[in-house]
Amino acid sequence: MSLVELIARADARGLAASGLACVERCLPLLGGDDALLRPLWATLSDGVDEDTARHAWAEELERVRDGLAGAGAGAGGGAGGADGGGAGGAGDLEDALAGAGDPGGVGDADDAVALVRRMLDAAPVERTEAGLREWAGVCSAASLGVHRLLDPGQGAGTQDALPLVDAELRRQTAVLELLAGHGAAGLRGALEVATEGRRVLRAVLSRRDRTRA
Questions:
Q1: What phi-psi label fits residue 157: left (phi over 0), alpha (psi between -120 and 50 degrees) or beta?
Q2: Which domain holds residue 193?
Q3: In 3D, which of 160, 159, 163, 147 has the Cα closest to residue 201?
Q4: pLDDT digits (tens, 9 = 90+) for 112-148
Q5: Closest residue by Cα to residue 187 from 24, 36, 49, 1
Q6: Cα–Cα distance, 175 to 68 (Å, whole number)
Q7: How much is the pTM?
Q8: Rounded to 5 degrees, what angle do the CA atoms 183, 184, 188 make?
Q9: Which of 44, 161, 178 is nearest to 103 (CA)?
Q10: Closest-CA residue to 120 (of 184, 51, 30)
Q11: How far apart (Å, rounded) are the C-alpha atoms in residues 207 and 164?
Q12: How many domains does the chain have?
């Protein structure tokens, strides 16, 4: 099943986890604490009254946004030139998937930061399924855009040309499949997948900084 289809069929929990996992993997670009999103993840677990969970989600989302206000400063207007992160949800995701093999590693880190901020700005305060579905599409496209901008691959026509993008596609798919197959029990595995991706992106950024020093 394609990534677009997985998002189209996911329930509210799966959609929220998909969006959170994308932001989680990209946190190194904003310098966010590794545990910053944990309270948001906790609102998706079983054993929490739905009304309580929705209220907690809104409160924690505000806390995360406040905590990252000004983080990654310098992005400026770079978002306009960074592919894959608009507010169009599924349409932008399809565009991002279509461009997944384009040359990578050529973007400014400020463009990548702007895409991460777009994910946070698009997060719905009201945790409705429709709002979460659109957000999941925005996050999926934006995260693919981030990884394409930072991918050290040599571009189309090269075997495994964009390994960072390919790995991000696999992780996004894995998160959605875990939630679709296991419900709340899949949250732990989804968080592990997101954490692995965050470590990879942090290593890529560190290597990029050393190369440019």
A1: left
A2: 3-212
A3: 147
A4: 999 999 999 999 999 999 999 999 999 999 999 999 9
A5: 24
A6: 24
A7: 0.85
A8: 115
A9: 161
A10: 30
A11: 13
A12: 1
As a whole number of angstroms, the distance between CA 63 and CA 79 comes to 23
From 15, 21, 59, select the one nearest 188 (Cα to Cα).
Answer: 21
Spatial contact of 184 and 42, defined as CB atoms under 8 Å apart: no
In this predicted model, what pLDDT tens digit does every residue of 18-48 receive, in sequence order?
999 999 999 999 998 999 999 999 999 998 8
The token pair that represents 202 in the structure block: 């942090």
Alpha helices by DSSP H, the chain: 3-9, 12-26, 38-42, 50-67, 90-98, 109-122, 129-150, 163-182, 187-212
Strand, helix or coil at 155?
coil
| 7, two tokens | 């998002």
Rounded CA separation 97/74 (Å): 27
Give the tokens for residue 159: 């075997």
Specify the residue for token string 């981030």: 146
Q: How far is CA 89 from the centre of its chain?
A: 13
In order, the DSSP letters of 124-144 are -SS--HHHHHHHHHHHHHHHH
